[in-house]
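User: Here's a protein and a ligand (S-adenosylmethionine). What would the complex look like?
Assistant: Let me lay out the input and then the predicted complex.
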Amino acid sequence: MDIHKAFHMKGGVGDNSYSKNSSLQKRVAERLKHITAWAIEEVFMSEKPKSLGMADLGCSSGPNALSNIKQVVEAVEKASRRMREAPPEFRVYLNDLHSNDFNTIFQGLPDLYRDLKRGGTNQPPLYIAACPGTFYGRLFPDHSLHFVYSSNSLHWLSTVPAGIYEKEGRSMNRKSIYISERSPPVVRKAYLEQFQHDFSLFLKSRSQELIRGGRMLLILLGRTLSDHAHCANSFLWELLYQSLAHLVAQGEIEEEKLESYDVHFYAPSKAELEDEVRKEGSFKTEMVEMVEMRDEDVSGSAVAKAVRSIQESMLAHHFGFGEPIFDKLFHHYALLIDREFAQRHVKSTTALLLLTKL
Ligand SMILES: C[S@@+](CC[C@H](N)C(=O)[O-])C[C@H]1O[C@@H](n2cnc3c(N)ncnc32)[C@H](O)[C@@H]1O
């Protein structure tokens, strides 16, 4: 399967869309927004560009893409007033895979322009463009960017690792859809190697596109434990596996279909991120943090809706599910999440990495 063609968040603005179910990702970006503002201000103050190029990689189709732009423009304007410098013009590139619903973002642009004007400033020129394609490869011309931002996207690998398949093409991870206690060691190794390959290609590509001194802020799901099976982000995949197994038990899907489903996801540790940055060699690490977050007020059904808006395209492609099965699957999934929340304090781990191009 070509993941880059099949994978997309649920577009539009309907009940099950990513637009309507991305508030958990928004909370992460909100909690770290002081670091985003600080990072972009630093670039502006050191480079004083007349035309500032920035990219949001894996922007998706929700309102989060527009809040990120607003935040960056406001932070730079504030810094320019403090420095008594004219603000730059902004070139903002919104990137995601080709199948992303960019139109839903474009429809929100008039509101963004109005909000920025309402801020009372002389709104500097803001040129926004979509740039479809995979971030595991080149997207922009040489040295054209000052700031690269990516939130909640880089934990997606370019593919399910080839190393998890036997010669005949059967998955060796038959009793899981991600790394779990039941996964053989070869599966963990294959996922790690895929992450190393992809992340190093990502760094190499961005190193050619950023100017020297340019910055990159990467926010993605990560893990604090060396063991994947017990880390907080894996429990969502484990419960999704259990919900799919429930459908097998009910005769809704064949066991073989479930045995061959694996996700193209990886939650790296701090050391795994640092190792790749060091090996690739084009960036200085300014900050690397693993931030643990627990949203007390989040319900199982809110989490289930968020995961549905993210996974629906892949599940539909593999299992051929229609709406009624999706409703059943995610209803069960929400119950399992609520049960887990009632039993233990689940925290998700977010990795934050701030890099400067050498
Ligand atoms: C969960 S959404 C995050 C969207 C937004 N940044 C936010 O924080 O709400 C992840 C996005 O990453 C995109 N994505 C995954 N792999 C990608 C790749 N290789 N290249 C570009 N975008 C990718 C997905 O299509 C999806 O829209």
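Summary: The mean pLDDT is 92.
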